[in-house]
């Protein structure tokens, strides 16, 4: 499948769904500080993928993918905290943590691929 937009990326689709799931599961929670931070961090993952994709250079794309990968680690930590203090039910948090790990692995693979492309671009410029 040809990737024409960030919406075509499996990693964007999965991270976007995870952000929606986190919003849905926490939207009625009264702990606004934790809830708001969870949603903000969850939304940061697909948002940075999208922003990087829309940038004009591969180097910038890689930089935003790195930011997104960092946000996925931050989100995993916040999900573990929400699980530990019973903001999110244990099994549901476990599912989300597992999905977050998968998104992180996918981002790692995409970063590696984009870095290989960058090496080829750099060698052509030399």
TrEMBL record:
InterPro entries registered for this protein in UniProt: 23S_rRNA-intervening_sequence, 23S_rRNA_IVS_sf
Name the UniProt record assigns to this protein: Four helix bundle protein
Phylogenetic classification of the source organism: Bacteria, Pseudomonadati, Bacteroidota, Cytophagia, Cytophagales
């Amino acid at each position: 499948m040809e990737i024409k937009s960030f919406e075509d990326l499996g990693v964007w689709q999965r991270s976007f769904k995870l952000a929606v799931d986190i919003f849905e599961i926490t939207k009625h929670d009264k702990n606004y500080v934790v809830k708001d931070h969870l949603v903000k961090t969850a939304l940061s993952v697909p948002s940075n993928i999208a922003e990087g994709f829309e940038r004009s250079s591969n180097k910038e794309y890689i930089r935003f993918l790195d930011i997104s990968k960092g946000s996925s680690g931050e989100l995993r930590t916040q999900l573990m905290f929400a699980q530990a203090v019973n903001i999110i039910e244990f099994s549901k948090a476990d599912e989300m943590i597992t999905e977050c790990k998968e998104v992180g692995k996918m981002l790692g693979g995409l970063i590696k691929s984009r870095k290989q492309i960058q090496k080829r671009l750099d060698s052509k410029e030399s």
